[in-house]
# Entry
Amino acid sequence: MRTWLGVIAPAWIALCMAMAGCNEGKVTREVSVGQLGNVAHGKQLIEAYGCGACHIIPGVHDARGKVGPPLLYFAERTMITGELPNTPPNLTRWIQHPRQVEPKTAMPELGVTQAEANDIAAYLYTLRGREGTSWID
Ligand code: HEC
# Structure
């Protein structure tokens, strides 16, 4: 019995670690939404900065802009603007400094602070497919 555990337990742990590794981005986002920032405040900031003038953003009043891509299912996106892997550090970087990533983008540098970008990112990471595509406030 002791030998059996000695063989199976490490193999099981290695398998769990490998699976967590494969899902890294997803796990990171799911674990960190609450830790990343304040979701309710993020929604207020999205309204205050007028992100909805350029983006359709579910749950945000009057966010129906069509200059930029709709931010539907944002938590499930693999990439940000097709360029950066969709991780919290990359998303907050994009929100603060889109023109460092994409010099010619129409998305302006709005002077968003790191703390504000964390809250905004936390809100965007609540947006999942199960909420439906037509959920526009
Ligand atoms: C003047 C219009 C404009 C405003 C205002 C604006 N954006 Fe954007 N945004 C864009 C455009 C255009 C893109 C596409 C970027 C590209 O591919 O170059 C974009 C891309 C994005 C993306 C990546 C989308 C994707 O499909 O990967 C996110 C996230 C985003 N914006 C969030 C925000 C947030 C949050 C705010 C408010 C703080 C904001 N944007 C304000 C125009 C805007």
